């Protein structure tokens, strides 16, 4: 009988805690975190449990007081859980279509917006440049032979 | 540069040999990425500054910095640095290794108004960066520090891209509205409507008119406030964000997880096996301990400050919870996912 009463008290208190937390959604942290909001890098490092004790202290204080960042971490935990731990990242990747990356980069590079009119140098790999030079040399050689 | 930063920079400089060794290892694996030792060192320096450079804590020792640098995902960072500079070899490697994963995350999060293809395209554009400021292309890769894995970071980038696209198609939608309108939560089985929120709020409003309400609320708030931040966060994840016990267990899966270490320090039982897996029942035990602390503090305030008897404290609790649906937190232990508590509003 006494045990039942204790259990009932505990259950009632849990309901009360939940209702109070839902009504408030935040609790003041023990200390000021000094963080405005967590960025993507910080969010993912936290969700992956990579942060050390000292690093995580201001993060945890921030998550206690910031509903938006906390919700973001909760959503990311759910996402991580739903996707599961897959191990290898390149499982089942089909053979690469030749030149796909070049086209992809060219497509993305064509959308670049220059805010100060500077031209961004495109980093072509050395062998591509060599290949291009070789083709040009061959073309010139052929041209010379035709003219000759 | 203030004294703290000056000291921090000297500390990082003491780790130059370690940084160079890591760089040489990355370089030997991918010599054609076009990342210089200087680029690499600058990125490591930025990571140390960002995570250890909190001005309100002590300057890290060289040993702490060395340990931090050793924990960085340097191979991922090296790849990200090369991609941020538009190196084609790096992009090829990145695409081979992560495209499938990006597609998978995008498909998981895509909804009726946001197609997976649109998300993938948006992510690639953002990763490459289409804005050039003062001659520097603003690649999203430049924001990756290597503290977490590149894979985890990409998951966050895709998640943000989905929210941004959703916002763009619905004018301005908050993260809260997005997740409640469907979003990731749609895929979860058993999500319940938030139909009770109004009645809970109304119940709390009614209770506040009760003669015991003020004392109850005060005692409860004070009890919650007396907890450590780790305990507060655990409660908020469980009760407000509705993370399931197994999801919280996943959050603390890594043995070095700060939440896990904190709770393990509180428990003599776990100290002997700090590396063992955290089960849902462990999280439940952590919660039970937090409840016990709150219960004790709650009774102490009501009895000590307000002079209430045991019976009156019970009346306070019962009145305060009277109209609220009883959802025992243990439900999640026996239920594989059907029980998801309704979601709370933000601030």
Could you explain the architecture of this structure?
Chain A is mostly helical. Helix content of chain A is 63%, strand content 1%. Chain A is elongated and about 100 Å long. Chain B has 347 residues and is mainly α. Chain B folds into three domains: 3-72, no CATH class; 90-180, Rna Polymerase Sigma Factor, Chain: A, CATH 1.10.1740; 196-344, no CATH class. In chain B, 64% of the residues lie in helices and 1% in strands. Chain B contains 18 helices and two strands. Chain B has a two-stranded antiparallel sheet. In chain B, helix 5 crosses helix 6 (88-109), helix 6 (88-109) packs antiparallel against helix 7 and helix 6 packs across helix 8 (150-169). The longest helix of chain B has 26 residues, at 280-305. The radius of gyration of chain B is 25 Å and the shape is globular. The two termini of chain B are 37 Å apart. The model of chain B is unreliable at 178-196 and 323-347 (pLDDT under 50). Chains A and B meet through helix 1, helix 2, helix 3, helix 4 and helix 5 of A and helix 3, helix 4, helix 6, helix 7 and strand 1 of B. Strand 1 of chain A pairs parallel with strand 1 of chain B.
